[in-house]
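call fold(seq) -> tokens
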Amino acid sequence: MSQHRRYDIKLKSLIGELHQGHRRCYGAARMHQTLRQQGHSCSKRRVNRLMRDMGIKARTTGLYAWRPGQHAFYSSAGNQLKAADKPTTTGSQWAGDFTYIKTRNGWLYHAVVLDLYSRKVIGWSFSRQRNAELTKSALRMAITREQPQSGCIFHSDQGIEYAAHEYRELVESAGLTRSMSRKGNPLDNAVVESFFHTLKAELIHQKLFDNEIQATAHIVEYIEFYNRQRLHSSLGYQSPENYEKLCA
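ret:
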């Protein structure tokens, strides 16, 4: 392997960590400046090429291509979660998002659905492809495992993976109410962002997985621990499942 290629691999690893660390907000220009400030020699053109190879872009610029009918979809959804009261029972407010996991064999995308009442992870999926099927699989699992109330809010960001017509149809057929973050504002989906931060801090950053099979097995095991045993300060230091039992 050439020295140039080895350095590309190193830069990709750094870019992946920085991209997630900055809540997927940085494009090539800011990413280039951050790398330079950390002492890594590279050009903006090289950073742009590597980010394009990895399939990642800034949340706030160019990530979501507008398609016919999509503007009406966003406008009709709005941020229903922001105007809603704090959930008082399970199945009343859900939220979903996805992230990506580095393995020795490439990148693995991971989508989840959380119940905002108990912070329990109720649906998840994994894929080597970033598309609507990734997010649909996580939602289908949540619908199968849990019983959402009629009109349950399902909140997500404005990614194409959540704006696809087949995804909208799945949300509506399940009797859920669509809700979307403001464009370029990931803090609107803070609970799911917090879960991903915890997952990465307690598992992902502690181990480099050999492949997607190994990564999936470890993450599913962690989700079970997170739901059944991990104490949450926001839940009075109860696990999600214990909190649901205590409040039933």
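The chain has two domains: 3-54, 70-246.
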